[in-house]
Amino acid sequence: MTKVTPTSLADLIRRPIVTEKATLLLENNQYVFEVDPRATKPQIKAAIQELFDVKVTGISTSNLPPKKKRIGKFVGQKTQYKRATVTLAPENTINLFPEV
Q1: What are the residues whose beta carbons fall under 8 Å from the beta carbon of 5, sequence distance 6 or more?
Q2: N or C terminus of the chain: which is more exposed, having fewer CB within 10 Å?
Q3: How many angstroms separate the CA atoms of 88 and 94, rounded?
Q4: d(CA 29, CA 8)
Q5: CATH of the domain at 78
Q6: With 0-12 CB in 10 A as exposed, 13-18 as middle and 19+ as buried, what is 31?
């Protein structure tokens, strides 16, 4: 495994994914994030624990296939991304929607 610095850990996690399914998973203390496609499970776990100061109990990852996109007569593909579902310990939470 390559050495990972705390600044590069923050770059692994791109954004939280807020969909209907992801919000249903919040009840089970599971959070869904878009991550760098090259990130490994130990790197994702270290990044989540470092950024949010929580204890991670499990991680599931999936590489989603690229989707076709058409602009006029040109057919291309949307960029491919990796999705990580992170399960936290029962006493931990992540505040995805901070109060303003």
Answers
A1: none
A2: C
A3: 9
A4: 26
A5: 3.30.70.330
A6: buried
- Segment (H or E) for 47: helix 41-52
Q: How far apart are the first and last CA of the chain?
A: 39
What tokens does 43 get?
A: 């790197």
pTM of the model: 0.82
**SS3 call for 94:** coil
Domain hosting residue 62, numbered range: 6-88
Identify the helix (H) or strand (E) that includes residue 62.
strand 56-63
In a domain, 25, yes or no: yes
Model confidence pLDDT, tens digit, residues 19-60? 999 999 999 999 999 999 999 999 999 999 999 999 999 999
Q: Is residue 57 part of a domain?
A: yes
Spacing of C-alpha 41 from chain mean position: 11
**The total number of structural domains that make up the chain:** 1
